[in-house]
Write a structure and sequence with these properties.
Length: 196
């Protein structure tokens, strides 16, 4: 695959520290479709979902992008010069590349506390993935009114709905399931401790 668009989003229950991350990978040409020609079914059929336990909002956003990049990387590293554009509503993820020099200069140590940043390992992994894949990150405004949707907002809105639905189904299940393989309708469960 040469040029691709990768949409990522998350939904979190902060009280239970349970979250769901999702991604959608489409060819860049898919973005040429008219917004209202893209239905929820078009996105749901290709949306990949993963569950995360013991997580927080910022951690979940970065975990999800890293998981998505890991899943799609084999087909994306193209010596012919394919491009990868990531679309996210996460301010943290969208700002990581701009913060790289300062974070690395301070060795991922917080200025105020003098301690290693909670997500330092995730940030390092993100930068390593960027060095390998050369992706670009685009900030999408989340929860925009439907009348203002362009194609990117329309796709992102469907990803957002799918991720929220997946979290709701997980939380409504009688017993939270243990880890399982991800196959057509089942969801992979990842248990991550705090990455400090």
């Amino acid at each position: 695959m040469n040029s691709c668009a990768l949409f990522t989003d998350v939904s979190l229950n902060p009280q239970r520290k349970l979250g769901v991350g999702g991604y959608l990978l489409v060819p860049a040409s898919f973005l040429e479709n008219e917004p209202y020609g893209i239905g929820q079914d078009d996105v749901s059929a290709q949306l990949k979902i993963k569950r995360f336990a013991e997580t927080s909002s910022t951690t979940l956003e970065v975990q999800t992008v890293l998981w998505a990049l890991e899943q799609v990387s084999d087909g994306l590293i193209d010596p012919a010069g394919g491009k990868l554009e990531i679309y996210t509503d996460s301010q943290c993820v969208a700002g990581l590349l701009g913060r790289r020099a300062a974070l690395e200069q301070n060795d991922f140590i917080a200025k105020r506390s003098g301690r290693l940043l909670r997500n330092a390992a995730l940030y390092r992994a993100f930068y390593a993935a960027h060095d390998r894949m050369g992706f670009r990150v685009n900030k999408v405004s989340g929860h925009a009114p439907a009348y203002s949707h362009n194609t990117i907002h329309r796709i992102f809105s469907h990803v957002d709905q799918g991720v929220r639905r997946a979290l709701g189904l997980w939380l409504d299940s009688p017993a939270l399931p243990g880890p399982s393989a991800s196959r057509h309708g089942e969801y992979e469960v990842a248990h991550h401790g705090n990455d400090r």
